[in-house]
Design brief:
Layout (H helix, E strand, L loop, with lengths): L5 E3 L3 H12 L5 E3 L3 H11 L2 E2 L3 H6 L6 E4 L5 H13 L5 E4 L5 H13 L3 E8 L4 H4 L2 E5 L2 H14 L13 E5 L3 H12 L1
Parallel strand pairs: 1-2, 1-4, 2-3, 4-5, 5-6, 7-8
Antiparallel strand pairs: 6-7
């Protein structure tokens, strides 16, 4: 079965995001360094576990969307670089790590140079996001955000007008703006 979303990183937030997406009717292709965890979450959600990045990408329908929920730093950088070599023009990567916004601007330029989209998503909600939804601060082009909007709707909180913030997600500007906004959010917390 082909999936519309790939989700990499099934820790406390990523696993619960997969569960919330499934409650909203979206079964994702799933990848985690702990293969047993990926298999468990896939069984719970009706998704499919992948053993590696090429298998995850192969399970997705084009245009592909891959959401990365890994810790910021080297693991996120390595995963995004590997995805640049596996994805095709028109595909979108969402970086849900607490990455530095400057890294997000650089990464977006690298993806866009290959005809791909990059969205940086500040994700707030922690382990409570499963029950209550997530607050999502999203940066990227209009086209990129439109491609991930169906997933944002399911993950987000509230019942406000889509994309205006009261719905639980807000397109805050170009690439880098999502992680910049999350940085300010973290500072206020």
């Amino acid at each position: 079965m082909a999936h519309t979303l790939g989700l990499i990183g099934l820790g406390k937030m990523g696993g619960n995001m997969a569960r919330r997406l499934a409650k909203g009717g979206i079964q994702a292709a799933l990848l985690d360094q702990d293969t047993a965890l990926a298999v468990t979450v896939a069984r719970e959600t009706g998704g499919a576990a992948a053993l590696d990045l090429p298998e995850l990408v192969a399970q997705l329908t084009a245009p592909r969307v891959v959401w990365v929920m890994l810790p910021s730093g080297a693991i996120t950088e390595q995963t995004l670089e590997a995805l640049r070599g596996l994805l095709s023009p028109g595909d979108t990567v969402v970086d849900g790590a607490n990455s530095n916004y400057r890294d997000s601007v650089r990464r977006a330029a690298n993806f866009e140079a290959q005809g791909m989209h990059y969205v940086d998503a500040g994700v707030s909600g922690g382990i409570h996001g499963l029950a209550h939804g997530y607050c999502l601060m999203v940066g990227g082009t209009e086209a990129a955000v439109a491609q991930v909007a169906p997933f944002l709707r399911v993950l987000a909180t509230g019942r406000g007008q889509e994309g205006d913030g009261s719905s639980g997600w807000l397109h805050v500007g170009p690439a880098g703006a999502g992680h910049f906004t999350k940085m300010i959010h973290n500072g206020i917390e």
